[in-house]
Amino acid sequence: MEHEQEQYVCRICGYNIIGYMKEQCPFCSAAQMKLIPSEQCSLEYHVEEVQITDEVFRVQTVPELGYRHSAYRIDSDGKSFWIDCPSIFDKSLRSIDAIRFTHHHFMGSSNQYKKLFNCAIHIHEEDARHTLSRNFPLDVRFTGDYSEDSIDAFHIGGHTPGFTFYRFNDVIFVCDYVFFRDGNHGTRLNPFGSERDTRQGLRRILDTAEDRAVRLVCGYDYVTEFPVWKEKLEKLLSKKPSSG
Ligand SMILES: [Zn+2]
Ligand SMILES: [Zn+2]
User: Fold this and answer.
1) How many angstroms separate the alpha carbon of residue 200 from the centre of ligand 2?
2) What digits encode the pLDDT tens for the residues 107-145?
3) Per DSSP, what are the bridge partners of residue 171?
4) Which residues are within 5 Å of ligand 1 (an ion), measured at CB?
5) Is the pLDDT of residue 164 over 80?
6) How are beta strands 223-225 and 171-175 bridged, if at all?
7) Which residue ranges make up each domain of the chain?
8) Which ligand approaches the C-alpha of residue 193 most closely?
9) Which of 53, 61, 139, 213 could form a disulfide with 120 if both were Cys (CB 3.0 to 4.6 A apart)?
10) Residue 102 CA to ligand 1 centre (angstroms)
């Protein structure tokens, strides 16, 4: 039998460390005590699907883990896809054909799901090269925009050089490109990455979504109506950038 390699999950951010223990989380710098063996995480947590539309499901860890990141499942033409990947490895989930990453921050336990489902893993070339991606199996390193299986991929960079948002029917998937809050305060661009490029990327999301009559926005910790999201973010873009 093949020897299972070591794997640890950061309880704070959900990043998976493959093959060896680190002194701290390479993504969020949490202390070693926050790094939990993957098998133990699979006992403490599970992953649930919540239906959003006929073909889109929110895939989230229960109980909530760290950043409360959600991945999403799309059922399209007899195939199934995830946008990003849960941190927790839950063998009871329905099989998928491919994982499409928005960027390299939420690769979760995609290496374990790849073994289980034999799914293809897609990520933009520029994020594939990042050190955080190094130990993850990556099958398709795309560049630019593309469309496949009724899912459109738009490479916008900004938050990370390879950041890509996705559209399926009237839903867009934007992960953590912006932090969105319901109230009057707290909605902002993800500050990690060039502000100028992230503003340009957000402009492209808004324009593309407007053109294609998008109805819902799926983010890393929220699902909201596009018009509500758009109004807040247009306001944000109308303000002067804080630098440059
Ligand atoms: Zn972490
Ligand atoms: Zn990110």
Assistant:
1) 16
2) 999 999 999 999 999 999 999 999 999 999 999 999 999
3) 168, 216
4) 10, 12-13, 15, 25, 27-28, 30
5) yes
6) unpaired
7) 7-238
8) 2
9) 139
10) 18
Which ligand has its closest atom nearest to the C-alpha of 130? 2
Q: Ligand 1 centre from 194 Cα, in Å?
A: 22
Q: How far apart are CA 13 and CA 108, in angstroms?
A: 10
Q: Which of 8, 83, 80, 75 is nearest to 40 (CA)?
A: 8
Query: Which bound ligand lies closest to the C-alpha atom of 164?
Result: 2
Q: Are 7 and 87 in contact (CB under 8 A)?
A: no
Please work out, in degrees rounded to the nearest 5, the angle formed at the alpha carbon of residue 56 by the alpha carbons of 179 and 108: 60
Looking at the domain that runs over 7-238, which CATH code has it been given?
Answer: 3.60.15.10
Q: Is residue 120 within 8 Å of residue 101, measured between CB atoms?
A: no
pLDDT tens column, 227-241 = 999 999 999 999 888
Classify the phi-psi angles of 143: left when phi > 0, otherwise alpha if psi is within -120 to 50, otherwise beta.
Answer: beta
Q: Compute the distance from residue 149 Cα to the ligand 2 centre, in Å.
A: 25
DSSP 55-104: SEEEEEEES--TT--EEEEEEETTEEEEES--SS--TTSPP-SEEE-SST
pLDDT at 28 over 50: yes
- 9 CA distance to ligand 2 middle (Å): 17
